[in-house]
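We modelled the chain as a single entity of 159 amino acids. Its sequence is:
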Amino acid sequence: MTPQAQNRGGASIGVLMHFEPWEADLIVTLRLWCDSPEGQAKVWNEFALTLPKGKAAEEMRAFEQLVSTVAAYAHRPLVRHGVGCACVGADEGVFAHLVRVACDGDLGEAAQVATLLVTAAQAERVAILAAQVGCARKSITRALTAHQAERADNVITLH
């Protein structure tokens, strides 16, 4: 990949804290998954701990299929920031936007957005997978947020 192509996909377009919590979680999940086998194990564990047993495996497969399809049919390699980076790169932003639009139910628009990442022949498939992934990611983030709130309620503060 040329440095210009890498800069285009990796150019910072924002920061995670300015995204909806589930979208920021989606971006971090993408980074973890693509980073290492240990990152993939963390993603699997998060799905398994927050979704019903049968549903977790199904949703994890959809996430895997989405990421592998994007990787296999991408116009160029998807550029990601580091797992702990607060910035959001252009490619990551397009990925999150694709999933948001698909999850909102506008599969035609999602397929158009998908063509920014993958070939037109794969755009519809990517949009359908993105819709499933977005709904699952929202559920996971809600479950994690509820768990964190529950833990906070069980803390006694001494003055």
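As a brief sanity check on the tokenised model: The longest strand covers residues 12-15. The radius of gyration is 16 Å.
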